[in-house]
């Protein structure tokens, strides 16, 4: 958990705010490590950690020997091209889901991801995604309860889609940032629901979804069965 009174947190927030208010634009080079060290009177380790987190969260990217730059928004895949349900349907799968839990929680770590007060209630939807009746992903979505209430979230039982549910309440994500990693699945309950052995590696994806105003709508975590899921990236020069 980050201490909001630290200079490390202030460095991150100052850069994020500069990006959001377009003082720093995609492709702009941010101040060097030495400049930020002097400006905030901190160690190189503090600056590197702040940069590392901002790169992980999709705000910045580094180029060896050149410096650190603001990430270009167009490098992030559009939601219309990565809709999980649409991808599966286009590939000929029959899709379904099993709802594990719909609840209202208070969680300081998740609240920070959503950019809201630590005590603000959050609507949480946890479900298993199925393709041809096989479990291929376990998804947990978190959204400010002022945007989607606990009662409204139950519409997912009818829609069988988180994003269709959002759309029904005129909540429209327009772009996302995703971070992929390999992570062992050690939750016994999820292991059983996913038919995955203890400690088996999965694709672990952290997603933050934004609206047209670049406001955070959703934070999500997904475990993908590595036997069912792969990622292909096309790069055109």
Automatic annotation (TrEMBL):
InterPro entries the record matches: Bact_HTH_transcr_reg (IPR050679), Chorismate_lyase_/UTRA_dom_sf (IPR028978), Tscrpt_reg_HTH_GntR (IPR000524), UTRA (IPR011663), WH-like_DNA-bd_sf (IPR036388), WH_DNA-bd_sf (IPR036390)
Pfam families according to UniProt: GntR, UTRA
SMART domains: HTH_GNTR (SM00345), UTRA (SM00866)
Keyword Transcription regulation: yes
Record domain HTH gntR-type: where: 5-73
Keyword Transcription found: yes
Keywords: DNA-binding, Transcription, Transcription regulation
Protein name: GntR family transcriptional regulator
């Amino acid at each position: 958990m980050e201490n909001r009174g630290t200079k490390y947190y202030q460095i991150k927030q100052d850069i994020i705010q500069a990006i959001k208010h377009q003082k720093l634009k995609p492709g702009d080079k941010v101040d060097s490590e030495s400049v930020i060290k002097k400006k905030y009177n901190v160690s190189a380790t503090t600056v590197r950690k702040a940069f590392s987190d901002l790169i992980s969260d999709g705000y910045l990217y580094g180029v060896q020997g050149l410096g650190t730059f603001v990430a270009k928004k167009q490098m992030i895949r559009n939601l219309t091209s990565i809709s999980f349900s649409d991808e599966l349907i286009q590939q000929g799968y029959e899709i379904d889901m099993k709802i594990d839990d719909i609840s209202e929680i208070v969680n300081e770590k998740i609240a920070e991801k959503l950019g809201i007060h630590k005590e603000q209630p959050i609507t949480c939807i946890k479900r298993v995604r199925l393709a041809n009746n096989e479990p291929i992903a376990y998804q947990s979505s978190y959204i400010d309860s002022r945007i989607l209430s606990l009662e409204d979230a139950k519409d997912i039982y009818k829609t069988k889609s988180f994003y269709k549910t959002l759309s029904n309440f005129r909540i429209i994500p327009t772009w996302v940032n995703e971070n992929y990693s390999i992570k062992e699945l050690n939750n016994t309950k999820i292991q059983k629901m996913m038919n995955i052995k203890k400690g088996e590696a999965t694709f672990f994806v952290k997603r933050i979804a934004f609206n047209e105003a670049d406001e955070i709508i959703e934070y999500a975590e997904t475990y993908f069965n590595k036997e069912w899921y792969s990622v292909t990236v096309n790069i055109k020069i």
